[in-house]
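Job type: complex structure
Entries:
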Amino acid sequence: MSEVLTLGFITSVLAAAVASGAALLYAALGETLAERSGVLNLGVEGMMLMGALAGFMTCTWSGSAWIGILGAIVAGSAMALIHAVLTVSFQANQVVSGLALTLFGQGLSAYLGTSYVGKAPPDAFTKIAIPVLSDIPRLGTILFRQDALVYLGYVTVPVIWWFVYRTRPGLKLRAVGENPATADAMGIDVARMRYVYVVIGGAFAGIGGAVISLATNPGWSENMTAGRGWIAVALVIFGMWNPARVAAGALLFGAVEAAQFRLQGVNVPVSSFFLNMLPYVFTIVVLVFATQQSRAQRLGSPAALGKPYVREER
Amino acid sequence: MASASTPAPASRVPGRRWKLERVQHPTVLAQAVVTVASVLLGLVLGGVIMIAAGENPIEVYKAMYTGAFSGEYNLSETLVKMIPLLLTGLGVSIAFRMQLWNIGAEGQFYFGAIFATGVAIFWLPNAGPWVVIPAMMVAGMVGGALWAAIPGALRGYLGVNETITTLMMNYIAILVAEYLVHGPWRDPMGYGFPGTESFSDATYLPTWGTTRVHLGLVFGLIAAVVLAIVFRRTRWGYEIGVTGASERVAKYAGMRTARNIVLVLAFSGALAGLAGMAEVAGINHSLQRGLSPGYGYTAIIVAWLGRLNPFGIVIVSFLLAGLLVGGDQLQITLGLPSAIAPMLQGVILFCLLAGDFFTRYRIARVKPVVPAAPAAEVAA
């Protein structure tokens, strides 16, 4: 056990936390945007899987991991578009439509991906040490010896935070999610806004999937996201729909995941099955606390979350 | 999704002669027609995906149909898979009626199987069938109910989103089962193969002739009848409906919503647990890895396609079982991945969700001058 508590071990866990938190970060940020517009999308798991597969496939064809990311964005957006059509245009139940999207994504990715199982991608995102910064003791190892997608994540979080809280389109986005009738009266096209943000959310989920298949575990296997899409949905609640808090949550869950793998490596006297339960148990515990906190602070979900907007039925 | 361009009712174009009108109570006939049309459209769209992937969909569907429904053996295997789908589908439908999104039937199924296995191997290893089978049934239902009551209590008393917690409980339940069959419950004579020892013969559920169709089918059919009565004839069934329609109304009416939430999820889980029990007692006769190929998830589609109606669920569970068995046959006859079946399930559900729009709205002609229109809106 003593080897668990060394500074070197903790540093390596935190570095792994940042790396594996990236997949959750992208997916959860995308879901934050979609939910801010009032559309709950429980299809994150399916969109991530399709993103992971499409990223891997396009990378294999093109030989470039960056083109793979483009493929993942297209796949994630296309999946999200199905959800947007069903929930915005056809006013379908958002919960059921999202579940359908997850089941569809799981089935379709397993079907289309059979011939790619066990193959290595020709290109992958490797760790790049940033000069000077990476030499900072501890912190440099944790933050600045990561792959390009992680660095992109560092930039994405403040940009989205600024967009949501400090720009006019961000204000419109929040208005549509809180009170679509008022937004409509102000001349905002509610349906169009929801389409746009659901699809952007899907693009982010696609990137999140590709982080797994092209950076953290290069390769493809059936259901390789292993519930991370659902954890991303939980993170949005944990983060109270605030991109900065969502990012902190992604880091926390990355740490749980990293600790789980590292502990398996150092012979902790706990069955690996219980270590594997950690992220799921932790999600439930965190969700309980986040729910209490958001109730106490009256910082609930976007008021119109989950409800279709029909102008005639106000 | 060819009809994606259908305009939302919100975007009424001035001068248009047709408009969409809200239908207050969709008829059963309209729902049935839309369901059948959605399934057919889903198969067509699924075929388009197969063409894109380089397959001949007609050949695929023919192979699936033969594999699922032709000949006594294939048909009986479809009935075998129908049992867990029927029970779990009925289970989630109870929760869905209350707008509780229990997507944890998979974990509840596993916990039912774990509890039933405990009874069969450790508690009553030598009992006769009239003792051990009812004991396993009760244990299976208790196991599933407890596993669902945890997210139920969190939702009812603390307001924690049940969709995510029930799903997380699936992963945990499967890992608990894996731990047991790899560790303390592993068969000492099993040559290191993960799985418990076989149950005694007394636990075997009676089967129909030489097929593997077992008594679980009767459990499912009885459960469907009981649920139909509960939903239509009892006060509790009525409370579920009211709470589903509006939790606030239910509270004002003095219903104990928190308690009902826990109870509904527990009952929902009990049926999934019974499905798990029936699977180990009727088919596997031991607890093994990979007990369920995702029955608990297919259950969601079963419940929704069956319109949350117990008898609808009986029909749909049979058809979707056929889809699963047909999908497995594809691997054998055409060498195609069986994942085609869940992909098709997803597409069919999409079509149904879109199709439901047409049961809720009808296209009506807009009369040239309608001065009395506001009155209609007030009525709505």
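Summary: The first strand of chain B starts at residue 18 and ends at 22. Residues 1-11, 375-380 of chain B have pLDDT under 50 and may be disordered.
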